[in-house]
Design goal:
The complex is a heterodimer of chains A (256) and B (67).
Chain A lengths: L9 H9 L3 H30 L15 H28 L2 H33 L7 H22 L3 H15 L2 H11 L19 H47 L1
Helix pairs in contact in A: 2-8, 3-4, 3-6, 3-8, 4-5, 4-8, 5-6, 5-7
Chain B lengths: L1 H5 L4 H39 L18
Classes of the chains: A mainly alpha (256), B mainly alpha (67).
């Protein structure tokens, strides 16, 4: 009965026992300091070039600076969802428990980035388009992305059994992945108010280097922050699972 | 400096966008760190209460000491 904490029940035993977090903990401890320094460095330089050392747009004037917090948020929202989809695939195919931990950790981060993309987009839309919101394909598909993150979090909490929650969430993540190309190509497939891509396109980016610099610096900052938050939230998720397993074991020991 | 804060007349939009970004990202980071600290402390408490978990050969008496 004493080893019950490692195997509270036959199905839970797989998830708690196989999720050997020791290696992950060591690796993340080594990576985190570098990632934190990189995050701070990229944010400071990104903010300097974004707010001070970059020109205004001849049409948008100073509102173009909103791009440096808006576009990276949208990129990272999609990167976060890609993480969910890949994690879901690994959960379903190889049943690797750490992938489920990664999915659980990435979902709230993705929801935050998506919220930020939508909110800063609205703030940018008002002075440039004359409206906070419009139901065009780009904005609508990103709003759906936001609901997919919320749905993923909700479905995870809807199951008591960890393995079933992981499976259901993985399936949702994979099915929802069709939304990613829809977001990406929405500006080409439909006639949207949202402008098409000016960085990630074939050939040279249609943007002046002075504006591209802060954009890429802020994107690097967001990406590093995502990595920091992902590692921290994976540790949090592992700690929570461990607590749960130990509490079940203690309850079992008390009954015996 | 005031010209910088003025943002060519778009101060409300620019600064609210940056403020919201800071609030969201710092908020999520702080919430994550606080939850992680709390969970780690709780886990440490549980592990201190159940030392028998690692030493399976010995009697699991301390683990049974529920409050």
């Amino acid at each position: 009965m004493a080893d019950a904490s490692l195997a509270p029940n036959p199905s839970g035993g797989f998830w708690h026992g196989l999720a050997n977090p020791a290696r992950f903990q060591r690796l993340s401890s080594r990576l985190l300091p570098f990632l934190v320094i990189a995050t701070i460095g990229f944010f400071l330089s990104g903010l300097y070039f974004g707010l001070i050392a970059s020109p205004i747009d001849y049409q948008q004037k100073d509102t173009v600076r909103i791009m440096y917090v808006h576009v990276p948020a949208a990129w990272l929202a999609m990167a976060s969802y890609s993480t969910l989809a890949v994690a879901g695939f690994v959960v379903l195919v190889w049943r690797h428990p750490l992938a489920d931990v990664a999915g659980a950790a990435a979902a709230p981060i993705g929801a935050a980035f998506t919220f930020l993309a939508l909110a800063t987009g609205a703030i940018w839309g008002q002075p440039t388009w004359g409206t906070w919101w419009v139901w065009d394909a780009r904005l609508t598909s990103v709003l759906i992305l936001f609901f997919l993150f919320l749905g993923y979090i909700a479905i995870r909490n809807a199951f008591d059994e960890r393995e079933r929650a992981a499976k259901a969430a993985a399936i949702l993540a994979l099915v929802g992945a069709v939304n990613l190309p829809i977001i990406k190509f929405s500006v080409e497939w439909w006639n949207t108010l949202h402008q098409p891509a000016s960085v990630t396109r074939l050939g040279a980016p249609a943007m002046h280097p002075d504006m591209l610099r802060p954009l890429l610096l802020m994107a690097a900052a967001y990406l590093c922050l995502f990595a920091v938050l992902l590692l921290l939230r994976m540790r949090l998720e592992l700690a929570r699972r461990r607590i749960e397993a130990m509490q079940i074991a203690r309850a079992g020991a008390a009954e015996a | 400096m005031s010209a910088f804060l003025h943002m060519g007349g778009y101060a409300v939009f620019v600064w609210s966008a940056y403020g919201l970004a800071a609030l969201t990202l710092i908020g999520l980071t702080v919430a994550t760190v606080v939850s992680l600290k709390r969970a780690s402390a709780e886990l440490a408490d549980l592990e201190a209460l159940a030392p028998a978990r690692r030493r399976r050969r010995r009697p699991a008496a301390p683990a049974a000491e529920e409050e």
